[in-house]
Amino acid sequence: MHVEKSYRGISERLARRYLSNLGGDIEGGDPEGDGDVLADDWRASVSSEKVKIGRSVTLTEVTVVFEGDEETLDGVIEKFSQKAMRAGG
Predict the structure, then answer these.
(1) Taking the alpha carbons of 33, 29, 35, 24 in that order, is the dihedral positive or negative?
(2) Among 23, 49, 81, 84, which is most buried by a count of CB atoms within 10 Å?
(3) Domain extent at residue 28
(4) Which helix (H) or strand (E) is 5 found in, with range?
């Protein structure tokens, strides 16, 4: 299964750290790097881009691509999304 989700208000570093806290290992061991996060039964790729909101505000939008079996990903995505929603304050 392949699921792509986007989140605003968090950084790539924080996304990788949250994924690590959910049982993944960051490729290269550095949350600041650009490696995937790997677990025994799932993996996640993290990327980001600046998006314009209105005329003058830009935000960082982090996209996480989750891969794994549906049953496993449901729990991982739910827990990650809860953490990501709280990150903005």
Answers:
(1) negative
(2) 84
(3) 2-87
(4) strand 2-8
* E strand or H helix at 66: strand 57-68
- CA angle 18-59-62, nearest 5°? 35
Please report where in the chains the tokens 């993290």 appear, as a residue: 46
Question: Domain total for the chain?
Answer: 1
Q: What is the pLDDT of residues 7-52, one digit of tens each?
A: 998 999 999 999 999 999 999 888 787 889 999 999 999 999 999 9
Which two three-digit tokens encode residue 86? 């709280």
CA nearest 84: which of 1, 39, 35, 21? 21
CATH number, residue 31: 3.30.1370.80
| pLDDT value, residue 26 | 94
Position 89 pLDDT exceeds 50: no
